[in-house]
Structure formats: structure tokens, C-alpha cells
Amino acid sequence: MEGVNVSTHPEIPGEPTQTSTALLEKATAAIQGFGPVNKIHQHLCAFHFYGHDMTRQVEAHHFCGHQNEEFRQCLIYDRPDDDGRLIGLEYLVSEELFLTLPDEEKRFWHSHEFEVKSGVLFMPGVPGPIQRQDLEKVAKTYGKVFHFWQVDRGDTLPLGIPQVMMALTREGQLYQNLARDVERRYNVSFEKESENRAYMTGPAHGIHPMANGGGRGLQTVLREVECKPVGVDHSAARVFV
Amino acid sequence: MASSDANPGAMPPGDGSVPPGKPMTVGHHIVDKGAEMMQSLKPIKKMSQHVCTFAIYSHDMTRQIQTHHYVTRLNQDFLQCAVYDSDDSSARLIGVEYIISGGIFESLSPEEQKLWHSHAHEIKSGLWVNPRVPEMVVRPELENLAKTYGKFWCTWQTDRGDKLPMGPPALMMSPQELDLGIVKLDLVKKRDDKYNISTDALKTARAELPAPERINPQADYWKQNGKGFAIDVESTEMKKITAFP
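Above: the input entities. Below: the C-alpha cells describing the complete assembly.
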């Protein structure tokens, strides 16, 4: 079976950017502060599949920053290019933080041990020995991913509702044509890198049984609700911290 | 489990930091810096605007938040934003917003349109600002943006005290001129004080800004229907190729 390769470039609907708009944005880019995004220091390439459907797999380019030693937040693009589409986001937590989550919440989070040890998760452009210093930590973490734009089914716009995504947990899940395509483009070998990563270990307590969907699929559903919940005290002032 | 759950479930208090966790070691910083120099991070470098504005939870419109959007333009009609809860380097990534022109919005199915909100009021009222940029510089852009629609998913409800991102994403709505769409004055004042601006003065300055001829009634769904949206997550059979996990 083959995966759909979405590294080709369907056009987003719309007109090309006008010169005046581009110039204005050059000015704003120069004048304004970009504090939160200046923290993003790392590009990781990996694959996700839909939480209810392993047959739909997506190459995911993560751009990550650390909030602290135990927590990272990443923007996910379909390509690491100027015109890459922002398709989702991921949070990574240490095993310690993961274990503090209620069991219901743990289901959303996937383990990283296999992705890292198989070599499939890698940092484009960074030599192996340097990558491994960080990835040996990543192997022990858990991640929570939502995608908002289903590029693998050809959507030229971010339609529908957010999708919980999962990550590779064993051999035989990743479509080989998708794997070969990434290896070719980045001139890497997952197998060779995997040998170099054999020394790495996953979470100290083993992969938690509630992680990875608790072993089942997860699917999001949209529901209409009253927009002002009944029985809640609305008089309390809310101050944004 | 739903985005509309009042409380996400018990968590240990920790030291109160959001998120909790040990600080990074110097050694780790050094490794990161080294690796960073070898990577190009192109999509991040393409972010060209910082917008500070406000958003409202569609399933509970009494909850309003200040947001910081870091915006990338992909073409004249489409922008994508990484959304944070503040503008400093420790800001939490709380979601993603997509912005499209009126023309593209009209091409969406009615079902899809319900998930989007209009921007005209937010801009004309002065709530939407580009910190540090003189108003006259940004004014031509505001004319375009006033005609756009947005779709904003919030993945971390820090305003209710979540120390870690919990639950599924919540759909957000935009400030509007009536009812539940009016942003609380204390929120606006706090923002204005921080940036030393006046939302009211901007509203006056923007009075001449042309409003869109028509705002599609499928957007801002709550206005006509009194309803918002929640995302539920269901445990289900996964379609598989091989065993999982």
C-alpha cells in the first residue's frame, strides 16, 4: 500500500500578494517584536497519522521551542519552506509531567520512543552526534498533536474540525514510499541512524497504557451548544493573566 | 471529554508555573544553539506581523481572552497565524487562526462557514492593533483585513488556569458590537495600559475605514442562532495497517 505524498504543492485559492501589501509587511516585520516566535530554535521532521485512521499519514515539519526543560511547543508545517502551510501544532512533555495528567487526558498523548529510535524523527541539517544529544531526551517524552488542515486529502483550505493525530509506535506502520521520499530529499538513512540510536531508552516507567489513545482510535466530533452555559456564575469578573 | 468541559480534571498544583517543569540547563542551551545555526527555520522567518486583539470562547462567551497573533501571509487572500497568550518570550502557544478574504469565504459550504467569524467590528472598534506600528502605516492593511473572516482553534485554555494544554481544541469567536460579543472594559484597559494606546482613540481614527458591504450571516453563528460549538472526542476503532500501539 502507498501513502499519499503531500510534499507537492496544490495552490491555496487567492490572488498573489500585492506589492503594496508585501512592502507594508516588510515594515511591520522590521519594526515589531516577535518574542514568542524568536524562541523557536529547532526543526524536526516526523510523520503523523490520524487518530482514527492509520492509513492516512502526513509528513510533519515541527518548529519547536522550549518553555523549560520539560515542555516544548511546536508549530507544524507541511513543508519547511517559505510557503509552508501551518497545518497543526504539537506540545511535548517530559515523562514526569505526563504522569501528572488525568487518565482521560493521557489518551491524547503519544509516545516518542519508537519514532526516535527508528530514526524516522530527525533534525534536518544537523549532524547525527549533535541531534542525538537532544533526541535521546525526546525519546522519553510524550506529545499531543492536533492538525487543523487535512492536506493529505487535498484540501486547499483548512476545512472542518481539528483532528487528534497519533505517531508511529512500531515497525510496519509507516508507508515505505513516504519514508523513502523523505530519506531521498534529506539525504538520510533511517536504518543507519536507528543503529546509532540503539543506546537510547524510552520513558523510565515504560510507555503508559493510557497513552496513544489508550490503545484505541480517537475521533473528534462537532456539537452545537448554548453559547452561555446555564448555572454558571457570570457575574464574577474575569481578569486575563 | 469535550472542549466545553468546565474543568479539565484534577492536576497537582506544582509550584504554580505554567507550564510546570525544571529550567533548561546551560548545557542544553548550548547544544540547541549549535543545532539552530545549522537549520534554516524558513516558515518562522516568514512571519511578518504581530497583532494584538481579543477572542471569545464560542461555547462560553463570558470567557474572553487577549491574544497575540504572529501572522504569515501566503497570498493576498490567505493568512495563517500562530496564536500566543502574551508577547513575551515565555508566552504559551494557545492555538492557530486562519484568515481568509470575503471572496474565499463565500466559496465555503454553509456548514464550514459556521465555524468562522468576521473581523470588521474587531478592526473598526480599535480592538485589533499592531503593537509598535504607527496607525498610518498599517491603515491600508486594515482596510483589507476588515473584510476578512477568521477561524481560530484554541488548544490551551490558560485563562481558566490550565497548567498544561488539556482536552480537545475550543472554537473561538471574535468581538462584535452587541451582547456577548462586547469585550469587557477591564480587559481592554489592561491591554491599552500595557501598550500605552487608546482603543477608543483608534476607533475614532478608524471611523472612516470602509466596512464590508455585507457580512455573511453564516459567520458569527451565535448572533443569529444563540449557539456556539464544542469539540467532543470519542474513543473508536482505529483503521489500521498493522497493530497499534
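Note for the figure: The two ends of chain B are 21 Å apart (CA to CA).
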